[in-house]
Amino acid sequence: MKKIMVLGAIYAQVPLIEAAKRLGYHAVAASIPGDYPGFAAADECCYVDITDPEAVAEEACRLQVDGVTTCGMDTGIVAMGRACDKLGLCGISQQAAAAASNKYMSKKAFVEAGVRCADYRVVKNEADLESALDSLGLPVAVKAVDLMGSRGIYRCDTREEAHAAFVKVMDETRQEYCLVEEFIDGLLFGADGMFSEGKLVFLLPFGTEAYMGGQVATPVGHWAPFEYQDMLEEIRALVTKAGNALGIQNGPFNCDLMLRDGRVYLIEINGRPGATCIPEIISYYYGCNYYEVICRQAAGEDVSGFFRLDGRVPFASISHIIGSDRDGILREIRNNNEMADDICDLTFGVKTGERVSRYQNGRDRLGQVIIKGSTLEECRRRMAEVMDNIELVIDGGSESLGD
Length: 403
Description:
Elements: E1 3-7, H1 14-22, E2 26-31, H2 37-41, E3 44-47, H3 53-63, E4 67-69, H4 77-87, H5 94-101, H6 103-113, E5 120-123, H7 126-136, E6 140-143, E7 153-156, H8 159-172, E8 178-182, E9 187-196, E10 199-211, E11 218-224, H9 232-246, E12 251-260, E13 263-270, H10 278-286, H11 290-298, E14 316-322, E15 328-335, E16 343-348, E17 355-356, E18 367-373, H12 376-388, E19 390-394, E20 397-400
Parallel strand pairs: 1-2, 1-4, 2-3
Antiparallel strand pairs: 5-8, 6-7, 6-8, 9-10, 9-12, 10-11, 11-14, 12-13, 14-18, 15-17, 15-19, 16-18, 19-20
Helix pairs in contact: 1-11, 3-4, 4-5, 5-6, 6-9, 7-8
């Protein structure tokens, strides 16, 4: 029996752990101790700090695992790379994982390889910041290089905002520097894919529903197929060049992109599958279980055959994260929807009596909805209906999730 170590045991890793078990693998959930659902789902628990590459590699060797993987978060990517290197497993290398996990290292590699992306400056102090603003102009984005998701990123339209953001970022980061980038405004979208020996096994661009909860947009939903099908070859070429620039040879990846004035720009690429229901979107599009495919590749199997449509018309699908517009105690969830074949998922990750926060980023998610159908228009109409039938009662107030 093959043994797969999944780094992390939070809500996002449970489908990956369950997929490994369905395949007949022995699933190991690796994380620091805590009340995490992945521990209950797994065959075996491994208590380890997944931010510590050497500790994770030692545990992977002790357990003699056949694959190491994760999904939905960046926390254990470098450790995953270290374990793959040490055991000779099919996955991202430590060097590539480190480059993908640091916005400065990845940006430097992109520029050197000619990947189209935002111009940037490394900033260590106020004088550096002033110089960056002089050369880049406004607006800019001030970014921590080592935080995941949309944390530590601020759009700044004035010099005063840039200086305030710099103070915040330097307080949030573990590094002695940050990045200041030109702010590229346009259509935000994403793509997930998988490399094998440096070549793309597949690439699926998808639309992104962005929420302006803070200074920058954070994704709250995705859909496929992506409307701009005429851009596919340009997207493929850009993503391939970016992955090669970082040295990603094997494993799944997720990237954020921007379409502006008919040209595609890369924002970042991560050495793991995307979050916000992206694996489910991929599964419906290709007619496979993408979580299972991720486990199969981690275990060294050839997975190229799972992404051949062979004339099949792929499902359209759309996802949306459930969140609240206020802080407080969740008193009641009123879900008046009847489950139907086109509602692939309608689940809540919180219970009544728990304190919830106003949605700012993915850590504030309360649940998720995934709809599939023949067309995007059909999916969007159904999503609106489903959301209209959900209410959250928080501290005595009723909050409808529809428009």
